[in-house]
Design a protein that fits this description.
Blueprint (H helix, E strand, L loop, with lengths): L3 E2 L6 E2 L12 H33 L3 H29 L6 H22 L4 H21 L9 E6 L26 H11 L2 E5 L2 H11 L3 E6 L1 H11 L4 E5 L14 H12 L7
Helix pairs in contact: 1-2, 1-3, 3-4, 4-7, 5-8, 6-7
Length: about 280
């Protein structure tokens, strides 16, 4: 696997050179979701059953108290898995999304990646489905009445969206772009001005986290490959992130692109469909 180091100390890119077309693998995601949910519940049952023989000696009611706690957690996990599974099958928004998004991001996803690795399921299949599901959860939150002000929204772009041979430095200031049209940065600058939101071109995940710390946004529109988007959504949680998978005509981390209309759609969703005069 080819490896390209970042210019930021302590970072390195470990993605492969191959380009993979974007298609959410919902069937694979659904299978792993069910396996992981049942596995977590089974593990909880064992954690209750095994100590039961000793807990009863401490107090006769203690095994039942622990059992009730395990049952409650199990019901919550299974109900969350059921709601998410129904949303995947029916292709509709997930409600109440704010409750189950954390369950998906912090519990199911790490376990699914682990189980997927053991079953030799390509990780990118899980990541593609996760990105799609996360976006539908965030949009469900928006449709329930959540709105954001433009000054509290960030657009985060990977540096590989810039043409590889370009001599202009846009990672310090995107307005340095001269608008040659070889990449989409000029269009994105115009879009950010149209909606009065901040746009940054970043050199890696460390810089992305720094921007989030500096500006404390209420929502983010992020563009990257599936792996970086997945880790970014996890790092940013509970911050709502609308994730857009980049285009990779030449493979990972070189001359990538983005569908600008997808960015516009994400901004309109977050802002209620209104452009803001600059």
């Amino acid at each position: 696997m080819a490896r390209k180091r970042s210019s930021i100390k302590g970072e390195e890119w470990t993605g492969s050179e191959e380009s993979v077309p974007y298609t959410p693998y919902r069937g694979t995601f659904l299978l792993l979701l069910g396996v992981c949910a049942l596995g977590v519940v089974a593990a909880g049952f064992l954690l209750w059953y095994v100590p039961t023989k000793g807990l009863g000696n401490i107090h006769p009611a203690l095994p039942y108290v622990i059992g009730a706690i395990v049952l409650g957690v199990g019901v919550f996990i299974l109900s969350g898995a059921l709601v998410i599974a129904l949303a995947i099958v029916r292709g509709k928004d997930i409600t109440p999304s704010s409750r189950y998004r954390g369950l998906l991001v912090k519990v199911f996803l790490p376990i699914m990646v682990l189980v997927g690795g053991l079953l030799k399921i390509p990780r990118i299949k899980i990541e593609k489905a996760f990105v799609d599901l996360n976006n539908r959860m965030v949009r469900a939150m928006i449709r329930k009445g959540r709105r954001f002000s433009p000054e509290k929204i960030l657009i985060l772009m990977p540096h590989c969206i810039q043409w590889d041979d370009c001599k202009i430095k846009v990672t310090k200031d995107v307005k340095n772009c001269v608008g040659c049209g070889r990449c989409e940065i000029a269009e994105l600058v115009s879009l950010s001005e149209e909606y009065s939101v901040k746009l940054f071109v970043l050199t890696g995940g460390t810089v992305a986290r720094r921007r989030l710390y500096e500006f404390r946004p209420d929502a983010v529109v992020a563009v990257a490959c599936e792996r970086d988007l997945t880790s970014g959504v996890q790092d940013a949680y509970p911050l709502p992130v609308l994730a857009v998978v980049n285009k990779r005509p030449r493979g990972y981390c070189m001359d990538t692109g983005v569908e600008v209309q997808e960015i516009r759609r994400a901004l309109e969703d977050l802002l209620g469909g209104k452009a803001i005069a600059a």
